[in-house]
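Honest question from a wet-lab person: if I give you the sequences of every part of a complex, can you actually get the arrangement of the whole thing, not just the pieces? Trying it with mine:
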Amino acid sequence: MSPRVLDASMSRRRLSLAELTERHRGEIVGYLARLLGDRQEAEDACQEAFLRAHRAFDRLGPEANSRAWLYRIATNAGLNAARRRSHRAVRAIDVDPDALPAAAGPSLERHEELRAVRRAVEALPPRQRAALMLRQFHDLGYAEIAATLGGNEDAARANVYQALKKVRAALGGVR
Amino acid sequence: MTGHEDELIALLLGDRRRSPALARWLGTLAGRRELRAYRRSLDTLQQLYGNAGAAPRRIIYYCALPTPIIGRVFVAASETGLVRVSFRQSEASFVAELGQRLGADVVRSPARTADIVHQLRAYFAGERRRFDVRLDLRHTTPFQRRVLMAAARVPAGQVVSYGEIARRIGQPHGSRAVGQALGHNPIPIVIPCHRVVAAGERIGGYGGGLGIKRKLLRLEGSAAASW
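Yes, you can. This is the full assembly:
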């Protein structure tokens, strides 16, 4: 390979990191918001993830699935943020539910269902939560989820199914 | 049961087609119930997390109201409830501070703030002693929220000490932290941090200035106004 061609391919890769992060920024922030349940924390974690992506970009093989690669980096940043938070304070438990504004609109029963599901999602192990969100909202297949979270396809599928079973259990007897 | 459950999940997620065995199970009472429950689980997830990626910028509505005793008061509310009350501040700095602190677009709207403005006007006229509004305290810490809610329960005409608030929230040694949390009360007057005073009949501090604290206490007929 001549040096000139090598340069061209390198500059193409440099460009494509900016393009890559630009193209996927929205979905990555959305993913992190689903993982962390907080938009501001998601923005922060996304920034951290893109910094890491910048540092690791040279090690990304040309054949790699760059979207799954970004998701993997984002997942690590998200899990780190969640871990830091769990050290920092008891959060949800500390909030007095009566002091929080009630959601307007849905019936009381529906409101209870929404709360129950939210609680169930918040109680999920982080990997299960990540797997569920990736499958449900980001159209990642099990192979891609495995590439994102580590482990094999069967483990990825098991994580998604387990998460969904716990959400379903939170609804109890449905009319 | 678990076998059917896995198959049902696979079906709903589009991982697998309906097998004859699953179809038979879905014909049973238990099968129909689980199908409903899983559909509802997915719907609820969609409602809770579907839009997480496209969370719109929030809009905060504000308005100004002239008062006879402490000058112009600004109020601001989100869709959820009251987020801020402020005085001794220019309109420009109020708007800038709100936008920055809450990451929101700030819009002047007498219509969206009419209810609280009406209540405040009655309060300053001496015709109202408690407020009935929804609060939006999502930008405060859990500790601060507890302090603020404890202060909100002190009725007009009475005062309690920082130490008493600390005791009421179960942190008897936290009166200094209580003072700080109240000093950053985003919704003064409506959350009456002016009714919280120092021990030994001393007036304590006030973010808006001691003169205003005394005026508010006097308006409420509190003996502490002359401390």
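Two things worth pointing out. Helices of chain A lie at 3-36, 39-56, 66-88, 108-123, 126-137, 142-149, 153-171. Residues 1-15, 89-105 of chain A have pLDDT under 50 and may be disordered.
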